Amino acid sequence: MNQNPGTMRTPRAVGLRENLGQFLLLMLINAFVGGMVGLERTVVPLLGTQVFHLVQSTAITSFIVSFGITKALVNLLSGALADRFGRKKILVLGWLFGLPVPFLLIFAPSWEWIAFANILLGINQGLAWSMAVVMKIDLVGAKQRGLAVGLNEFAGYLAVGVTALATGYLASVYGLRPVPFYLGIGYASLGLVLSALFVRDTKDLVPKAGASSTLPFREIFARVTWKDRRLLGASQAGLVNNLNDGMSWGLFPLYFAASGLDVAHIGVLKFVYPAVWGLMQVATGPLSDIIARRLLIGSGMVLQGIALGMTLLGTSFSLWLVATVLLGLGTALVYPALIAVVSDAAEPDWRARALGVYRFWRDMGYAVGALLSGIIADLLGFAPAIGAVATLTVFSGLIALRLMRN
Question: N or C: fewer beta carbons within 10 Å in the chain?
Fold first, then answer.
């Protein structure tokens, strides 16, 4: 039987070298995704106190609660949506939700508008960041998952840090609004255009599974949440990791400002943490392909807790800078290893949904951390709130080591 050559397509090869152009494009797009979060790391908590005159920490951190809950729920759906409609369509949809965010931050007449902007930002992050990491894993295949995740998170979190630094500087020169948020208009516009016009879908690279191996979503949710010890260890560690990140996002600018730092120096600290986190993942991602992932996760969580404790002991910018570097290093050890653990434990046909469930629990940590630390700060002060989160982070690392032992 003769085949029409015009209808034949050469199967796409899997591997970083074979897909370098698309991989680098997705890294750039994820940098724009990270930049959208970086818009808020320095400036938005200060907007709460200096523009909207909020007093309670729980009110100020409420924007992180709305962001965290929304992103967590969207993460839960993103894998299933990607499996059904394709990765590229969901990536583009994420940018459509992100486009209004900087305009809302610029023109918001009340704090409720800021909270609504963060609902849209949560949808943007849950769809766009999820698809960026899933597509990179699709492109490189099983042997380079850690490398793919490390490079993805490097691009995203370096952009978080650079944008936090830039917005801190712009705010110190031009004020808290509107100039710092002009960056977000550029990020969202470029991210949407590049995703729509130049990204190729990667769903065709995922091995096809027979019907007998396809799991229902409730079974995947149960495995990631409690049935599989490895996945349980990863989920709880991911939640606590983002719990302490949510606390630092909301409280650290207020804590440093109360200690006498100006907005430019706060911006430097908010740059260093995600910048170290992002840069070091270029090394820690591939490292997790070589040595036991649980060792990176456990040691990284303990190092985060120590760094948070050092922040309480510090009384100067230089000491806080050292603590911030250590916090970024600890997070870099943890982040790509956790995603790689989930990818290891999941079969190709339900990996995207498993990653969605893991990212649901991980990003719910933003909401839990912001709410918990805000309540403790209102009742007891900043120091007890930071200390409680530091202690919880160390315990989470020890639990992960035990659950992932086998």
Answer: N
